[in-house]
Write a structure and sequence with these properties.
The structure is a single chain. By secondary structure, this protein is mainly alpha-helical. The chain contains 34 helices and no strands. Helices cover 72% and strands 0% of the residues. The termini are far apart.
């Protein structure tokens, strides 16, 4: 009878179990929706900060075949796996940022789901294992906080920091597999299954390290997991294994130290100074986790060179946290795990490995897990037992607040200008935000604003050669060549090996028609960077304008053989012949240039000029139309198309081209008489008068 009754009880519980599993399937869906809401509207955001430096420019990103060589995967410091994913994006999507953002958001979603699984696994050690409902809720609430925290933006919206989020995925997956392996080994006595999980742990460790080297802390994290959660049949840690593991890790560290192989990103900061600085930085990280306002792409944190009262307080607080972790180990190891995870995850970038930028928010990406875990754990301990519904509502309200802050913060990332204006507002005494803003204005041809930004940057950091170089570039574009020369010379004085300053000195001297001086600087640069393609191309162009055409063409012919310089050499050689009215000789080189770089408008523009010289107006028109298709603001192509339409008496089309051109650059004296006459032919007195007045405002004579 009892047996029958037990069977009935079991059968009666099946619907509720199925219902429970069905209900909690919605948790992963909510996590996915939360990420999509947080990062809605970010898909068209541009590349930011060092996105260009890290993967838009380097050949290894643009050339997917780079990754077909095994040797290029063997140096994890190069982050080959993360670069490979970026290379796939580049080769499939070009520079369309939408798809880069899609991949980053997907990785963040996977990380949220992984946090859900990992925390659910961990809850077996402090919540009754058969209390599936509370374990699900605990894991879900932790995951929802992890994905919505505003500080995660730099690991998601900042494209190149896919390195961080991808590394975090494999990092946490490695910990998860280790946990599953230990569960199989110690609880289920399934050695074969455990071995599979251990192998997966090791593979994920390698993939994490190939994504970003900060995951070198993973062996310590596995040790932390072992210490906090794994117990033998007598409910004791496996101290023999733990001590052996610790000794091996410590011995490995000592060997690296003694061999002088401990890495550093910069030699300008000592290890002690960097460590002292990081005590202060870590407290700032903790504050930003608690109060996620004042987020900044470029925090202004000065390097600490000696112990100060503020640093001492930071050290005491961190020491207190370590003490709490130690004291909690026996009775409440989850607290030890939370504190340990936070510091271990930061240990590579916030200890004794000096990095030029002492603070970046994306370095917290993995550590956010335990901050979320801490919030949920505290609520579970002190609220959930009395009122579980209130506990869940409070945590979800925090997630809603963080979602709102994430959406708001993401608006700052919608343009390069808005991001760096925000940085200037929050780091007004730091030079780099002004320099970055100047770079943006320079790209946009907003030269006066760029110059002001660079001047402010120089005032804040007068010994930075890069800012002088960039200021010189603005002055050179403004045709203030003598001032540009002084700015470049100042950069060269501060850093004699600065080849960018030397190159710009050569180019600027050429603009001043000081060709001998230009050649001097370019040859000086070549002594520092032998066979550098930019120096060689510019040297050939200087020979060309000096009238030493044969010397220039000989150099171009050599450069054509080099795949790196083939496009520019063909283009410049074509322009060289074209400048001597030898369009027939120019055309084959220009055609070859266009084939090599079909996305470069200049090749099509000069092809159009060559065809026009040869009397082929249709071919000229087609090439100029291609040029403005590639670069709609190509004023020279717009002007020439207008001239063709004007000569064909298609005046309405002619003025359409010229109006576009003058909107981009109003200072074109030769266009005003043509557009005025075209409107005269069209009988449009209003537009005729408008451009006549505009020409007079610009100081250009007209026939009216």
């Amino acid at each position: 009878m009892n047996k029958v009754q037990n069977q009935k009880d079991i059968i009666s519980t099946l619907p509720s179990i199925k219902k429970l599993k069905y209900i909690f399937l919605i948790f992963p869906i909510i996590i996915i929706l939360a990420v999509l809401i947080c990062y809605q509207g970010t898909y068209d955001f541009p590349f930011q900060f060092d996105d260009y430096v890290n993967f838009v420019n380097p050949d290894k990103i643009q050339d997917l075949s780079y990754f077909s060589h095994l040797k290029n995967w063997l140096n994890p410091l190069d982050r080959p796996l993360a670069d490979f994913t970026l290379s796939l994006n580049y080769n499939i999507n070009g520079l369309d940022t939408k798809y880069y953002h899609v991949v980053n958001v997907l990785i963040h979603i996977f990380n949220g789901l992984l946090v859900f699984l990992l925390v659910f696994q961990i809850t077996r050690y402090f919540i009754k294992r058969d209390d599936i409902k509370n374990r699900y809720w605990f894991a879900f609430l932790t995951a929802i906080l992890f994905v919505t925290h505003p500080i995660q933006i730099q690991g998601v919206t900042y494209i190149v920091q896919r390195m961080t989020s991808l590394a975090a995925f494999f990092y946490m997956l490695s910990v998860y597999f280790y946990g599953e392996g230990r569960i199989s080994h110690s609880e289920k006595d399934s050695t074969h299954k455990a071995i599979v999980f251990y192998v997966l742990t090791f593979i994920m460790m390698l993939l994490a390290f190939a994504s970003k080297p900060n995951t070198a802390s993973l062996p310590m994290m596995l040790l932390l997991y072992e210490m906090c959660f794994i117990r033998d049949k007598e409910n004791k840690p496996n101290w023999k294994f733990i001590i052996t593991y610790t000794v091996v890790l410590f011995a490995g560290f000592i060997v690296i130290m003694l061999a002088g192989k401990l890495p550093r990103e910069t030699a300008s900061i000592s290890r002690i100074d960097y460590l002292l600085t990081q005590f202060k930085v870590i407290m700032q990280y903790i504050w930003l986790l608690i109060v996620p306002v004042g987020l900044n792409i470029d925090h202004d944190v000065s390097v600490v060179h000696k112990l100060s009262p503020i640093v001492s307080i930071c050290i005491l607080i961190i020491a207190a946290l370590f003490l709490k972790a130690i004291l909690s180990f026996k009775k409440n190891p989850i607290i030890t795990f939370i504190i340990g995870w936070f510091f271990i995850a930061l240990s590579i970038e916030s200890s004794i490995i000096p990095i030029r930028d002492v603070m970046f928010e994306h370095r917290l990406y993995i550590s956010v897990l335990t901050f979320a875990l801490f919030i949920v754990y505290v609520g579970w301990r002190f609220i959930s037992f009395k009122n579980p519904v209130l506990f869940r509502i409070l945590v979800l309200l925090i997630a809603v607040l963080w979602t709102s802050l994430t959406i708001q913060r993401n608006h700052v990332w919608q343009s390069e200008e808005s991001l760096w204006l925000d940085a200037i507002a929050k780091s007004p005494a730091k030079s780099r935000p002004y320099q970055m803003l100047g770079d943006i204005y320079l790209k946009q041809n907003r030269l006066e604003e760029a110059l002001i930004a660079y001047e402010k940057g120089i005032k804040l950091e007068p010994m930075n050669p890069e800012t002088y170089v960039n200021r010189g570039a603005v002055l050179e574009k403004m045709r203030r060549f003598e001032e540009a020369e002084q700015s470049y010379l100042k950069a060269y004085q501060l850093a004699p090996g600065n080849t960018v300053a030397i190159y710009n000195l050569g180019q600027n001297a050429s603009h001043m028609k000081k060709y001998d001086l230009a050649i001097f600087y370019l040859k000086l640069g070549l002594t520092l960077k032998p066979n550098d393609t930019e120096f060689l191309i510019t040297l050939a162009s200087v020979y060309d304008v000096m009238g030493e055409n044969q010397k220039a063409r000989n150099l171009y012919q050599e450069l054509i053989k080099n795949p790196i310089t083939a496009f520019k050499a063909n283009l410049n050689l074509g322009i060289s012949y074209l400048s001597k009215d030898d369009a027939r000789s120019a055309l084959p080189y220009l055609v070859k240039a266009a084939r090599l770089e079909p996305a470069d408008a200049s090749a099509f523009y000069y092809m159009g000029s060559a065809y026009m010289t040869l009397g082929n107006k249709n071919a000229a028109k087609q090439n100029w139309e291609k040029a403005i298709e590639l670069v709609p603001a190509y004023t020279a192509a717009l002007d020439n198309l207008g001239v063709i339409e004007y000569e064909n008496k298609n005046y309405s089309k002619a003025v359409e081209y010229w109006e576009k051109s003058l909107q981009i650059n109003a200072a074109q004296a030769s266009i005003y008489p043509l557009i005025i006459d075209a409107y005269k032919q069209l009988g449009n007195q209003e537009r005729l008068s408008f451009f006549d007045n505009k020409a007079k405002e610009m100081g250009y004579p007209t026939k009216l």
